[in-house]
Amino acid sequence: MARGPGKGERAGDAPEDACARLQAWPWTCNGCQHRRYGCGKALRCEYSAARAQTLADGLLSGARRGVNAKEYDFERAMATIRSDVARGLSPAQIACGRADRFKVHPTTIYRWIAAGYAGMSDAELRRKVGYKPRREPSAAKPTSHGPERSYKAFSALPEEGRARAAEMDTVIGLSKDSQCILTLYSRPCKVQVCLLLPEKTSSAVAAALDMLERAIGKPLFQRLFGLVLTDNGCEFSDTEALERSAFHGTARTKVYCCDVRASQQKGGCERNHVELRKLLPKGRGISFDDLDGRDLAVVMSQLNSEPRPSLMGLSPTAMLEAADPEAAAALMDALGIEEVPYGRLDLTIGAVDRDREERGLPPLA
């Protein structure tokens, strides 16, 4: 109910024949002995604290509803957000990359998208619609490595050594493809290296590591990939060949393996494959047999130019250049990686197809 006159004020609104309690403070029937029984007055007024609090809360909520911005500025911001989401960028990256144009928290962008502003919906966010039921567990397969290369042995290493380790895995295309992609993920800088393998075998992996070692030199290879954590795939079974240097057969790295069906132990690599799949998505009929080195250079340039919230808004290439300029220059020159400015970032297959079109090649999808 509306507030009555204060103590000492005149009623004004109460009719002359109203109860005397309504013509003086506190202007309500609260406290009257006839409140519930025996009251024959036509006009009654009761105060409810719970009802008054509900009305007050509704008033405050209504005052804060909507967006605190001018209509034109908000429409322009939403157009920018929609354009960036279409390029595969996450709300966190948009909030960081567009901070000079509008200051907004990533959760606010998520809320705007969920509310349907600018015709958007959660279906445009890959992570919200990309989940699927897990497969039923199968019997564990025996591993080819001994306890000296187990995850337990890796966990026993000093924390500094584990923090600078690289994570290695492979990504496949269609089931009929011969070629696949070998990925090397640097934990400290989040740099993702992608190497094309002619086949998914241990000898092909060893040859790819040999090529990379010759391109950047053994000292830099050991600084970046001197400690590697991988899974129990057949392509990593010959650990001695993977560890053997291309120069005089000496050791270049130390390989450790995760436990069986425990890919979360190299979660950084697995999470970065989500970004890789934005550029080479599943279910689009993309054959990895059509890929070449230039395609992977485009993929790595886009992936490693993403601003990462975990790196305080820096990209992996910028982080590597700040930490080790010599290694960054050698790695980027050897693999054709370029720093892509935010305005040209495109985390979709369109980035690869445009480059292929310039080279006179058909699109992948």
UniProtKB/TrEMBL annotation:
PROSITE patterns: INTEGRASE (PS50994). Residues 154-324 form the Integrase catalytic domain. It comes from the Bacteria. One of its GO terms (molecular function) is nucleic acid binding. One of its GO terms (cellular component) is cytosol. GO terms for biological process: DNA integration; transposition. Gene3D superfamilies: Ribonuclease H-like superfamily/Ribonuclease H. This is IS30 family transposase. The lineage of its organism: Bacteria, Bacillati, Actinomycetota, Coriobacteriia, Eggerthellales.
